[in-house]
Design a protein that fits this description.
heterodimer; A: alpha+beta; Penicillin amidase (Acylase) alpha subunit, N-terminal domain; globular; B: mainly alpha; 6 helices
């Protein structure tokens, strides 16, 4: 009996401990093991950071591989200011401090890019993983690593950064793991140069992977050339390109034998895809209405009060927590810069230093094309190119899936163009097509010198020599110096194409259909100290059609024009006037469309809701302010007009899946200038409608929809909604239902989940001073006060002074912690 | 002191080893020892559970306190809207259960070494 009691108790105790160490499956999710997660020694309680900030930010640490002493001062926003005796040491410590705040984010970003989410999340991310592998993300990253190895300098920096991250990872106890590892039940793994390359590829995926070759090809086939040209013109005559034509291309046009600019028609704007935050969306290629976009500009001293140039930048991206950016200062004998970095990449991507400031926006040229393949055999092991048979190269992908015994083995065929992405899906329209994507090309071996070069930049020449290392995803890089220069360059590897090439799926059996090289860096659009006194970009066209080279892509039509309007009237500009431009909620789209719509509206038969909406709309100043109802009425009305007009296209979408939607600017232009165009006819009525009827029907629909939901708030902030979501979409770690004005077509480009991911304004005075803010916080820990402490100031349009400390011993009162790294 | 203080301190000291990289259930070994040396089975369960609950809840409460309840509020939302104090209680409950069961197992093991009721009484 005694034995029985004892054994029973022992067994119960052991079973209890075992149970508490085992995750509890719940559908396709797991509830973390209760003992592992709740125990106060190593569980989630250990991530409950003191309100004063993370412990262990003071004192001395020994770091393997350091050549000298490195001091880090943390300011009141937890921004590290790194002071090193050489740049390699600085980069090493950048790796360490970035990992100490953002390790899980670094893991997730690279797992997603590498198609390795299923290893830790199971079946639900398998589709996405498979697509990432098949699109050649790892293939691209491996090529990048090979390229970096050609530069001994890059090898040193990359290894230093990697070892810095790993020094942090190696000393972690289970208790120190970032919260998400504990929640999802896996462990951090070592960093590698490949992972840095994967971060680069994941940016390429967000910024330059979009294309609509399939949609355009199908739509052209259905509509025929005339209707296609009418609905999808390439060039908006109201566009204000980044680099205007002042005769600089005449010689080049002559040399290349380009006759008319008209043959370089542009297609519709593609919608962005692959948002950073759409991490777990397996419908990867689904069009996303929220395009990624950004603003940047520089104003010469001629137009500023202080006579010093001003520079501003706000990259618009999918907003997430932890934020995409990690802010820091790097100080070495070659560098003294402050700005934002991408966790996983050495150096500062956007910011300022003692002499200059710089910022980026996405170029948006189409650098991702589909080629249809002519197979030479049924097994698809050979294909035809220029009349000759070529062997397919096979790449084998192994996807480990949590909860499944066997991994998924996948075979991807590669032709000379690139991977056959979709041949595993017999119904896919692109199943016999190869993807030719710029991200698959080897990058410049000294890619990272783009950032480090700018970080140590002194003048226009150092700017130009730094950015030439940057090929993809192409960026409009704006620049200003203390010495008075302002400049912008459309920087990246831009393919040379024949007119219309890349707009549609092309015949992959002829190599002549490929890009015939890349635009010479001397000929890429660029501008330095223009007479007008400013340079700017907002993802609009790089150039007018008179630029010698044809390009196609995804371009903004409204922010750039309004930015041009604002900058053209600047006099005595100051940091405050730059703020007012960044926070400008005015929409050029609304200002273009609403007067046309109101002109066509019949005001005689409006009900009470209609009257109320009309009143709001007529007195509206086209600003998407948080408390205004007019933007809500306008957006619903315009959407309804668009949907009624393109009812044919919506119907085709249902039967043909991939159909191209006309761009908004073209729709507004048609309403204004061609109101009896056949496209306004509504298919399911016997009458032949014009824009006037469409506008009136749509107004009725709009007012009915508001009348049907009287309880629904109509003010723009509530109506549009705005969330900053956690990277794993965990709601308690997200900031949901935030109230803020702005619109994707306004300079303050806030849409439902996208927005200015970083706002920088620099005055190139002596000394250079800068302010900035991003909607997140330095810490990646949801249990830290510094996780989202910058969200409120960002919402309110506030900025922080960005400290460019002179030394680690600087007595600035904002410094709260000091850490010293010594060689081991 | 002998009945309450020493065994409780023993349990807490061994449990605290989990702060230094040992598994979180290491306290169960301390509890089994305490039960073996100091306690009888029913007593072991009651006192062990108390010691475990107090320790786990107190540490959780400490971290919650320095954190201003920030994280517990978020974790609570992840799990059916639990309040911070409920999470602390749940933590204490788990700790108490493990420690209490282990202490009782220890006490029952000790029983195996005792010959009969008479001798046990005499020795005490």
């Amino acid at each position: 009996m005694k034995w029985f009691k004892f054994l029973l108790a022992l067994a119960a105790t052991l079973a209890l401990i075992w149970r508490l160490q085992t995750p509890i499956p719940l559908g396709d999710k797991n509830i973390p093991a209760p003992g592992d997660f709740l125990n106060p020694f190593s569980g989630f309680w250990r991530n409950a950071e003191p309100l004063s900030g993370p412990a262990a930010l003071d004192g001395e640490l020994n770091l393997h591989g350091l050549k000298g002493k490195v001091q880090v001062a943390y300011d009141d926003l937890l921004i590290p200011h790194i002071f090193a005796e050489n740049t390699e040491d600085a980069v090493r410590v950048q790796g360490y401090v970035t990992a100490s705040q953002r390790l899980w984010q670094m893991d997730l970003t690279t797992r997603k890019a590498a198609g390795r989410l299923s290893e830790v999340l199971g079946e639900r991310t398998l589709k996405l993983d498979r697509l990432m592998r098949r699109r050649g993300m790892v293939f691209a990253a491996e090529k990048a690593v090979k390229s970096f190895q050609r530069s001994p300098e890059m090898v040193r920096y990359m290894n230093a950064f990697t070892e810095g991250v790993n020094a942090y990872v190696d000393q972690l106890d289970e208790a120190d793991y970032p919260l998400e590892f504990k929640l999802l039940g896996y462990k951090p793994e070592p960093w590698s140069v490949l992972k840095t390359a994967l971060v680069v590829e994941s940016m390429a995926d967000v910024l330059c992977a979009g294309n609509s070759d399939l949609e355009a090809t199908k739509t052209l086939g259905i509509f025929g050339q005339d209707t296609f040209n009418m609905l999808y013109p390439e060039w908006n005559p109201k566009q204000t390109p980044i680099v205007p034509d002042f005769g600089q291309w005449a010689d080049l046009n002559k040399k290349l034998g380009v006759k008319t600019p008209e043959n370089k028609e542009r297609p519709h704007a593609r919608r962005g895809n692959g948002d950073i935050g759409a991490d777990f969306d397996p419908e990867y290629n689904k069009p996303d209405p929220y395009i990624v976009g950004s603003n940047n500009w520089a104003v010469s001293g001629l137009l500023t009060r202080s006579k010093a140039p001003l520079l501003a930048n706000d990259p618009h991206l999918n907003l997430t927590l932890p934020s995409i950016w990690f802010q820091l200062q790097i100080h070495s004998p070659e560098i003294n810069a402050h700005g934002v970095s991408l966790p996983g990449i050495p150096g500062i991507i956007g910011g300022f230093n003692e002499n200059s400031a710089w910022g980026i926006t996405n170029v948006g040229h189409d650098v991702s094309d589909w080629y249809s393949i002519q197979w030479a055999d049924d097994a698809r092991t050979r294909y035809v190119l220029d009349g000759q048979e070529k062997p397919v190269e096979f790449r084998y992908e192994t996807i480990v899936i949590k909860g499944r015994e066997k991994p998924l083995m996948d075979t991807v065929r590669y032709t000379n163009w690139g991977p056959i992405v979709y041949d595993y899906d017999p119904d896919h329209a692109l199943k016999n097509c190869s993807l030719r994507w710029i991200a698959h090309d080897e990058p410049d071996p000294e890619l990272v010198n783009f950032a480090l070069g700018l970080n140590g930049g002194k003048n226009y020449d150092t700017y130009r020599s730094a950015i030439r290392h940057f090929d993809s995803p192409a960026q409009n890089i704006v620049f200003a110096t203390k010495s008075g220069d302002i400049a912008i360059t459309v920087q990246g590897r831009l393919p040379v194409r024949k007119p219309q090439q890349g707009r549609f799926i092309q015949d992959g059996s002829k190599s002549e259909n490929g890009w015939s090289g890349f635009i010479d860096l001397a000929d890429v659009p660029a501008l330095k100290n223009p007479e007008r006194g400013f340079v700017y970009s907002a993802n609009q066209h790089s150039t007018p059609p008179s630029y010698p080279y044809y390009y196609t892509g995804n371009f903004d039509d409204y922010r750039g024009r309004h930015l041009h309007e604002r900058l053209s009237v600047l006099r005595d500009a100051s940091i405050d006037s730059m703020k007012s431009i960044q926070l400008d909620n005015f929409s050029r789209k609304a200002a273009d469309a609403l007067p046309v719509m109101l002109r066509l509206l019949d005001r005689t038969q409006l009900d009470a809701t209609g009257q109320k909406a009309l009143q709001a709309l007529e007195s509206w100043n086209y600003r998407y302010e948080a408390d205004q109802s007019a933007p809500s009425y306008f957006e619903v009305w315009l959407d309804s007009c668009y949907n009624r007009t393109f009812d044919e296209i919506i119907a085709l979408q249902k039967t043909h899946k991939q159909i191209l939607y006309p761009e908004m600017w073209r729709f507004i232009e048609l309403m204004e200038t061609d109101s009896s165009n056949f496209i306004f006819d509504i298919q399911n009525t016997p009458d032949r409608e014009t824009a006037r009827q469409v506008v009136n029907i749509a107004f009725k629909e709009m007012s009915n929809s508001f009348a049907a939901n009287p309880a629904k708030a109509t003010d723009w902030a509530h109506f549009r909604g705005f969330d900053i979501k956690h990277l794993a979409l965990l709601e308690p770690f997200s900031r949901m239902n935030l109230l803020v004005g702005g619109d994707k077509n306004a300079l303050n480009a806030i849409s439902r989940t996208n927005g200015p991911s970083w706002r920088l304004i620099a005055e190139l005075s002596n000394p250079v001073r800068a302010i900035g803010v991003y909607p997140g916080g330095q810490s990646g820990n949801p249990g830290s006060r510094y996780y989202d402490n910058l969200v409120e100031p960002w919402l309110k349009g506030e900025y922080f002074e960005l400290l460019l400390l002179g030394s680690a011993d600087d007595k600035n009162p904002r410094i709260q912690h000091r850490q010293t790294f010594l060689p081991k | 002191m002998k009945k309450y203080g020493f065994p409780t301190l023993l349990i807490w000291a061994v449990s605290a080893l989990a702060f230094f990289g040992l598994p979180w259930w290491i306290g169960a070994i301390g509890a089994a020892l305490a039960g073996f040396i100091y306690w009888r089975p029913a007593q072991a369960f009651a006192l062990g559970t108390t010691a475990g609950t107090l320790l786990w809840a107190a540490i959780a409460g400490f971290f919650n306190n320095i954190n201003g309840g920030l994280l517990a509020a978020k974790i609570g939302q992840l799990f059916q809207g639990l309040q911070s104090w409920q999470l602390i209680l749940a933590t204490g409950f788990i700790g108490g259960l493990v420690i209490g069961m282990a202490a009782m197992s220890g006490a029952l093991a000790r029983d195996l070494t005792r010959k009969d009721k008479y001798r046990r009484r005499r020795r005490r």
